[in-house]
Design goal:
The chain has 277 residues and is mostly helical. It contains 17 helices and no strands. The protein has helices at residues 2-17, 21-34, 41-47, 51-60, 73-91, 96-101, 109-112, 119-136, 141-148, 152-162, 165-180, 182-189, 192-211, 215-228, 232-241, 249-252, 259-271. Helix 4 runs antiparallel to helix 5, helix 8 (119-136) packs parallel to helix 11 (165-180) and helix 11 (165-180) packs parallel to helix 14 (215-228). The protein is elongated and about 60 Å long. 37% of the residues are buried. The mean pLDDT is 95.
């Protein structure tokens, strides 16, 4: 009990330290490193006076460094520590809805919209994607409905085309989770423009994987294709544009130990009427 009390007091002190400029940077680092150790961290962050505003201020403070790109490694690390705490709030069932109602994901979109390939920017995009990924992981229709009112799909599609392998994987996971929601699938397949925006990027990624294979990325891509095939219009379109590599055993041999993804691929090729697998 004494140890728990000490941990709680330490937590409250660190949260209080966020409100003071001279202690904020070290408190951000300490809380982000130890967030798994504090199950109540998200509600404490959200409900403590001024803390959410402080975290948002950390985000706003680097907007001026985005264009032209001037973000340093230390500035990127600091804001990513703040983003890690927001991810904690986004993941917690008690604070997730409040997080959405405050439209906090929108403040991360300028980070996702950057194109600089330097490590500080890549880390910033990846950590921002992690916050959105934590939201969609909850399989909550309110989250998907909110995201569909924003430009998250185009932002993810651009990262899927030009990001690092890890960023591409998280961005594809977010699109996959949106598609797995009925409203998300309906939204993407409602117009040819939306459908082909998604399928063209997936097709380009398949071509890219021929040069640089990635099993975990391919897994999410196949799940996206399979979900698109579950919509009547999507299935009809895929009959004409599904990449031939997906039925090439030399391309898909990397999946030989992944039974679930092989099964998805079989379901996909059956759905679009290709019996070669």
């Amino acid at each position: 009990v004494g140890g728990e009390l000490q941990d709680k007091e330490r937590l409250y002190q660190l949260v209080a330290d966020l409100s003071r400029e001279e202690t904020r940077e070290s408190a951000l680092l300490e809380l982000s490193k130890q967030r798994e150790a504090f199950p109540d961290l998200a509600p404490i962050l959200w409900h403590s006076f001024g803390t959410t505003a402080t975290l948002l201020q950390e985000i706003f403070s680097i907007y001026t460094l985005l264009s032209p790109p001037q973000l340093t490694a230390s500035a990127s690390n600091r804001v990513c520590n703040a983003l890690a705490l927001l991810q904690c709030v986004a993941s917690h069932p008690e604070t997730r809805t409040l997080f959405l109602k405050a439209h906090i994901p929108l403040f991360l979109y300028p980070f996702l919209n950057t194109i600089s390939k330097t490590r500080p920017f890549e880390y910033l995009r990846l950590t921002s994607l992690g916050v959105i990924g934590a939201l969609v992981k909850m399989d909550d229709s309110d989250v998907i409905n909110f995201l569909l009112t924003t430009e998250i799909i185009p932002l993810c599609l651009r990262i899927m085309e030009s990001g690092s392998e890890l960023s591409k994987t998280v961005a594809t996971f977010i699109v996959q989770k949106i598609l797995l929601d009925d409203m998300g699938l309906q939204y993407v397949c409602a117009t040819a423009e939306r459908f082909f925006a998604v399928s063209n990027v997936l097709n380009n990624m398949v071509a890219g994987l021929a040069k640089e294979p990635s099993v975990r990325l391919l897994k999410h891509m196949i799940r996206c294709y399979l979900r698109l095939s579950e919509n009547v219009r999507g299935r009809e379109a895929l009959r004409h544009c599904l990449p031939a590599q997906l039925t090439d055993p030399s391309f898909t041999k990397c999946l030989q130990d992944d039974n679930s993804t092989r099964r998805w691929l079989q379901q996909l090729t059956y759905a679009v009427g290709d019996q070669r697998l």
